[in-house]
Amino acid sequence: MITSRNITNHLKEYKCSVCQMELTNNEEGAITSLTPELKEINEALVHFYQKKLKLKQH
């Protein structure tokens, strides 16, 4: 498993280096398959998290 993307400090997306399966953390913190719904949720979280970081810097 390699970390393919950091969503927030607590959420990450992972990819299996052997079978290329994509995984992510679910709402309970456990690792689960990255479904299209979870991928969409992660995209929204990235947007909100980056916006939050920009506002903190000002």
* Share of helix, binned: 25-40%
Overall average pLDDT: 91
- Provide the succession of SSEs: EEEEH
Major sheet description:
4 strands, antiparallel
Radius of gyration: 12 Å
Count of alpha and pi helical runs: 1
End-to-end distance, in Å?
36 Å
Q: What key attributes describe this structure?
A:
4 strands, 58 residues, 28% strand, alpha+beta
Describe the model:
The protein is an alpha+beta fold. The protein has a 4-stranded antiparallel sheet with strand order 1-2-3-4, with no helix packed on it. The protein has one helix at 36-57; strands spanning 2-6, 12-15, 22-25, 31-33. The model has no long low-confidence stretch (mean pLDDT 91). The longest helix is centred in the last third of the chain and has 22 residues, at 36-57. The protein has one domain (2-57).
How would you summarize what this structure contains?
The protein is of the alpha+beta class.
Layout of secondary structure:
Layout: E1 2-6, E2 12-15, E3 22-25, E4 31-33, H1 36-57
Antiparallel strand pairs: 1-2, 2-3, 3-4
